[in-house]
Amino acid sequence: MIMPRRPADADAAAPGEPAIAQFEASLQELDGIVARLEGGELQLEEALALYERGLALSRHCRGALDRAELRLRQLSSEPGPT
User: Fold this and answer.
1) What DSSP designation does 78 have?
2) What's residue 15's pLDDT?
3) Distance of alpha carbon 67 from its chain centroid, rounded?
4) For 5-44, what is each residue's pLDDT tens digit?
5) pTM recorded for the entire structure
6) Do 8 and 52 form a contact (C-beta atoms < 8 A)?
7) Least packed by Cβ within 10 Å: which of 26, 34, 43, 51?
8) Are 60 and 26 in contact (CB under 8 A)?
9) Cβ(54)–Cβ(6) below 8 Å
């Protein structure tokens, strides 16, 4: 069974969905995809579709982590209250 596809642009947050919730959902979906692929019980087309979705999710998660790291760097470089 192929999982329903979300838009390929996974970086665009759903309206009203906090970025952290979207990241957690993407990570959970990616974990499920990895488990299914490792199970080895899939037909080739289904495995390819899941792999493609996994790549999109992986890119989305990496982008979210990169943005969080940049934000932390910016916050830590701001001068503190005097």
Assistant:
1) S
2) 55
3) 13
4) 454 444 444 555 688 889 999 999 999 999 999 999 999 9
5) 0.70
6) no
7) 43
8) yes
9) no
Q: Token digits for 69?
A: 């790291």
What is the sign of the dihedral through the CA atoms of 26, 29, 33 and 34? positive
Query: What is the pLDDT, as a whole number, of residue 25?
Result: 94
Determine contact, residues 2/50, Cβ cutoff 8 Å. Answer: yes
Tokens of 59: 């890119």
Q: How far is CA 61 from CA 1, 46, 49, 82, in A?
A: 24, 22, 18, 36
C-alpha 46 chain-centroid distance:
20
DSSP character for 15? T
Which alpha helices (H) appear in 5-43, and where do they start and end?
A: 19-39
